[in-house]
Predict the 3D structure of the following.
Amino acid sequence: MDLHYSTQQDAFRQEVRTWLNENVPDKPLITLERQEGYDQHVAWERQLASGNWGMVTWPEQYGGRGLDLIQWLIFEEEYWASGAPLRANQNGIFLLGPTIMEYGTDEQKARFLTPMARGEKIWAQAWSEPGAGSDMAAITCKAVRDGDEYVISGQKTWSSRASFADWGFGIFRTEEGSKRHKGLSFLLFDLNSPGITRRPIRQLHGEPGFAELFFDEVRVPAENMLAGEGEGWNVAMATAGFERGLMLRSPGRFQATAKRLIELFRQHEDKAAPSAREKVMEAWMATQAYAYNTYGVASKIMAGGKIGAEASLNKIFWSELDRDMNRTAMQLLGASAELAQFDDGSINNWLEGYIFSLSGPIYAGSNEIQRNITAERLLGLPRQGAG
C-alpha cells in the first residue's frame, strides 16, 4: 500500500478543509441528546448537504459525490480535525445507507438514500430487545403479514437516536415458531406511525440518548422490507459489519481525540502522574496504527475484497482505544472533572466523551462476543465447550 497522497487527493483535502473552515459553527452546539441540541445538529446535517458533503461516497444521484473510500477517509480526517459537530444521522448514513445500497431495490434507494444524505430524515437503530442484546438471534418482537402490510407487536430497547429521530430500522420475527437466526426480516418504519410509543432512556448525565420503543399493532408497508422475508439475519449481519468495521468509527475521530489529549497533557504536565506521558504516547501510536490499518482495509475493499470476521477485531480495538484515551484525560484533569454540570445543555467534551466511551465495549456487539468471533473465525480455536 502506498502511504503517499496523490496530487488529486491533496487538492480534495484542501477543498474539504476550506469548506469546513468557512462553515463549521463558531460555538459548540448544545448536546445532541437534548431536543434543542438535536435540532441544531439536524440543521448542521442540512448545512453539510448544501455543500454536497452529506455522504461523499454515495452516487451523485443519491446526494453523494461518487468518491472512493480513500477520499472518504480524507474527508473524515478533516471533518474531525475541524471540530465539526457529531453527526446526528450516523445510524443512517454509516449503517443503514450502505445496507440499502447493497440490499435495497432501485425504488428503495431513491426513496430513502437521498433524504438521508440531505439530512431530511434522521434514523434510529432499533435492534436490541429486553431479552436480546448482543444475542440478536433471541429477538421476539414480531411482524405478521397482513395483505400489503406487516403488523408489528413487541418492544425494542436501547434504540439509538429514537428519542427524536424520524425513522427506524430493525429486525423482526416474521415466521411464527421460528428460532434463532431463521424467520427474521429487516424492516424500515416511520417512528411517527400510529401504535408506536417512545419512552426515552436517560444516560448517566441525565440526557435521553436512547429510547424504548413499544409497538402496538403498528402497520408498516411490505415495500419497506429490505431483501426478502426471512432474510433479515443476513441483512443485519451486513449492517453489523459496517458498524464494527470501516464506516461507523473512522480513524479521523480518534486522531482528533489523541491530538486534544496531547494538548491536555501539556497543560497539566507539571502535575501529571509519571505514567501519564507513556499513556498519551501509546494513545497517539494506537490512533496512527488504526489509521494505517483502516487505509489498508479501504484499499482491500476498493480492489474487490470484503470485510469478514476481522470487523470484530476492529471493533474491539477502536472501542477500547476510545475508552482508554478518555480515561487518561479524566486522570489528567483530576477528580473535579467529574463534577461538571450539563444543566445548561453545554458539552463538556472530556466528561461526556468518557461517559460515552464506557458504552463502547458494549454497543455494536459486546467485546466479549467479538472476542469469541475473533477466536473462532480468525484464529480457528474451538468453540467453548466443543470437544
Remarks:
- The chain has three domains: 7-88, 124-231, 249-378.
- The chain has eleven helices and eight strands.
- The mean pLDDT is 88.
